[in-house]
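Is iron/sulfur cluster placement plausible here? Inputs below.
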Amino acid sequence: MSVIRNNWTRNEIQALFDLPLMDLLFQAQTIHRQFFDPNRIQMSTLLSIKTGACPEDCKYCPQSGHYNTGLKKEKLLEVEKVVTQAKAARDSGASRFCMGAAWKNPSDKDFPVVLEMVRQVRDLGMETCMTLGALTPEQADALAQAGLDYYNHNLDTSPEYYAEIISTRTYQGRLDTLTYVRDAGMKVCSGGIVGMGETAADRVGLLQQLANMPAHPDSVPINNLVKVKGTPLADVDDLDAFDFIRTIAVARITMPASYVRLSAGRQQMSEQTQALCFFAGANSIFYGEKLLTTPLPEESQDLAMFRRLGLQAERASTPSQVMQQHAQANHPLYYAAS
Ligand code: SAM
Ligand code: DTB
Ligand code: SF4
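Reply from A.M.:
I modeled the complex. Tokens:
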């Protein structure tokens, strides 16, 4: 049987979650080493290009217009501002620049501006990623044409728990957008959020959906809910850190060749938990000042953690990134472990 499978049953995935932790971690790390260098981590930086006042009602999200979180709303940023931020991210060591907008979907008015952002950030020699909500097939094609490398669109949770979290869009709609992105030839970034009061079976259901897509997402962000005051999930119970680590490990085993991102929630997590996530197969993080609206650990703290763990930032290998590697030649991230 091939290691890359798209026919995982719920029972098989549940059985992985049920393993003794040491057996699960050993299996995940063994598979991880067949596909990746275990000491290299891909670094992405996020920028919110349009903030707040979103028409969707996602119960976890500080940017939904349905809840009062005291967030400062901002309309679509100017291209020049985005490019300045992308340069800064490149110079502090990120290889990918991810731009996120609090939209249900991009409007005809805003879309050309977004395409120009892709072109100009790409010209800096960075990988580009966007998350703009639902797309039409035509919009997906236009983004691919402009040179967008990745499109992020999360399934967030299991199909069963979805309606408890969001009422303004459907699971099938999310899957449809991912099909358009894949068909347009872009890389798919899709994952979810845990710690939203879901059951263990919902975490199984989420990973089953991701692992049984026609092709595994190239990048799988696993977010630990960032509880924001004013959102309906602000007071939900914490997920046991070991259950978070298990989710990462099962994502690694079921999607062996995908980047698994230790995504939102790092600021609230101990470095020991993060280290176990890396051991479980996480090999990508968000790095910089903040996620979209909530803070990340200080860059200096992340650098120190990398040094202590002997981890290095991944050097990208696409030709368009040679320029970037020159720019980063003396950056401490790349020398942390050498
Ligand atoms: N509006 C677009 C959409 O939802 O597709 C793009 C931006 S949205 C903020 C991107 C992703 O951020 C969501 O799919 C969700 O997984 C994640 N997210 C939002 N709020 C979060 C929170 N409080 N904690 C963890 N992840 C969160
Ligand atoms: C993803 O899965 N997580 C990122 C990115 N994709 C867009 C966003 C996390 C947002 C956390 C809450 C905030 O900072 O607003
Ligand atoms: Fe809007 Fe995206 Fe937040 Fe949902 S997750 S409220 S769609 S910004």
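Short version: The chain is about 40% helix and 15% strand.
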